[in-house]
Amino acid sequence: MKKQVRKRFLRLGVVAAFLLLAFPAQALADSFSFTGEAFGSRAKVASVVSSGPSALAAIACSAQGGVVSSNTAAGINVSLVGSTGTISDKVSTAQNGASRSTSAESTVQSVSLLGSAPNRLITADAVTAAGSTTWNGSSFSFTNTSSFLNLIVAGRSITGYVGPNTRITLARIGYVVLNEQSQLIAGINARQTINAIHVVVTQTNVLGLAVGTDIIVGHVITGLAGPLVARVGGWAYGTFAAVDVNGSSAVLSGPSFSAAAPCTSGTATNTAASIDLRGIGSTGTISDTATTTLTSSSSTVQTASRVQNVTLLRGFIKATVLDVGALASRDGVNTTFADSGSISGLVVYGRPISVTGSATINVIGVGKLFVHRVVRPANMIEVRGLELLVNQPNVFGLAVGTSVRVAVASGSIL
Question: How many domains are contained in the chain?
Answer without folding.
Answer: 2
